[in-house]
Write a structure and sequence with these properties.
91% helix; elongated; 167 residues; 3 helices; mainly alpha
Length: 167
């Protein structure tokens, strides 16, 4: 049976993860609005450039590709770093589960009765389910944190564009 401390820890992990997911959803919405505004501004600039190429905003057009490359390169680097952290966490879980499986095999071999074997299997299954729940919460939190971190440079670039283009 889970200790009250573990239940409390898992509840905190779940709350933190839900908060991060909500924050990421809000930032994604903010990015969608900012991107729409930037696209609208730039479509207007493109239309004006078609009508009068000499008066086109060449500085703005020259920013488009490099800023996207910069933002998405930074986001990709962030995803790569976070992927490593997530992989490390999964590897720790796997190593721990392998050690616990070894212990379970030894415990099964030491059972003296069918009732003892059933009790051992029941406890092993319950313990495993509790660990899986806790591990899932921890991984979910890591994923939400990585999503927010990777979203940041793209959102920062889009909102900077909105501020510059709205002037």
């Amino acid at each position: 049976m889970k200790s009250p401390t573990q239940v409390h820890r898992n509840a905190r992990k779940l709350n933190r993860t839900l908060h991060l997911a909500s924050d990421n959803a809000g930032k994604t919405g903010e990015l969608a609005v900012a991107a729409g505004r930037v696209i609208s501004h730039r479509m207007t600039l493109g239309t004006k450039a078609l009508m009068n190429p000499a008066a086109a905003d060449h500085a703005e057009f020259s920013r488009m590709i490099p800023e996207k490359i910069g933002a998405f390169s930074e986001a990709g680097s962030i995803w790569l770093r976070w992927s490593g952290r997530i992989a490390d966490q999964v590897a720790r879980y796997v190593r721990r589960e392998m050690a616990l499986a070894d212990n379970a095999v030894a415990a099964v071999a030491g059972c003296r009765s069918p009732a003892g074997l059933v009790a051992l299997q029941q406890q092993a299954a319950t313990d495993w389910l509790e660990r899986v729940w806790s591990q899932s919460l921890s991984l979910g939190a890591l994923v939400m944190r990585s999503q927010g971190a990777a979203l940041a440079p793209v959102l920062r670039t889009a909102t900077a564009n909105v501020h510059r283009l709205d002037r």
